[in-house]
Amino acid sequence: MSRGQYPSTRMRRNRQTAFSRRLVAETRINTADLIWPLFVVEGTNIIQNVKSMPGVNRYSIDCLQDQAAKAVEMKIPAIAIFPSIDTELKDDSGSLARDGDNLVCRAVKAIKSAYPNLGIVCDVALDPFTSHGHDGLLKEGEILNDETIAVLCEQAIHQANAGCDIIAPSDMMDGRIGIIRAALDGAGHQNIQIMAYAAKFASGFYGPFRDAVRTGALIGKTEKSTYQMDPGNSDEAMHEIALDLAEGADIIIIKPGMPYLDILARAKAEFGVPCVAYQVSGEYSMLCAAFNQGWLDRETTITEVMISFKRAGADAVITYFAPEIAAILNQS
Ligand code: PBG
Question: What's this model's pTM, rounded to 2 decimal places?
Fold first, then answer.
């Protein structure tokens, strides 16, 4: 395509006025694009702040209800609930994941009955429940794939029974999407969606999340690199996504977000399916650290990052900034 040249073409003409900038804007963000991750703990009337995530708290179920109310009021379509399990309840095999009355299931039930139209997402992975902090069963230093999937299926069915709308396997075991799909279908949950963490990289940016769910000290310096992906691999990410889609994933997640926008853009272009970016805890904390120093402007920056996710191809974004972004959008 031939394009004009200066001086007949002046790119700044369209940028001169606010109305014109609005008219030519290619990417817009909306409260409908948001998924808000929330942490839940046992007890009542508890709000504990997560030190490495300024402004983010762990809530007991009663207090989590108020946050769910806020999500509804702010028109945030869905929340993702992550349990922070008391250490004495964790064991080697993450048994509590197989208990339909565990913390996350009780939280889902409570919120679903109060706010039936608010979407609820639950992770499927064993890390909140294992004494070693790994997402799967650990035997002689090895994460067992197929044995782990059997437990994940039970976990997913309990969460679906509790009222979870979207099951989000974040464990990165091979073949788990298809097997979990079949297990959900077998339990009468044909309409429960699966949002697969399809391309999940072994990332340093998960550090603050591991503080929030109290797995950090357990996992220590050991790596999740035998199941999470090598940050350098893009073709492999496409392969992972193709497999998850073939196995029945309805939506795919690319994670982390900002350092992996190329993966997101490629995934959207190659597959044309619903894509979700997860702006993870470390991305949140890194930005907050700069905001708190006065080095970056909060509103401008969080809006810009959100637009970047959408521009790169995200249909929705999982972000700890969700209520803040919703507040900005609701007021404008
Ligand atoms: C656990 C899980 C993790 C995150 C979501 N689910 C951490 C991990 O894999 O170690 C990270 C989210 C974040 O950092 O915000 N399967």
Answer: 0.97
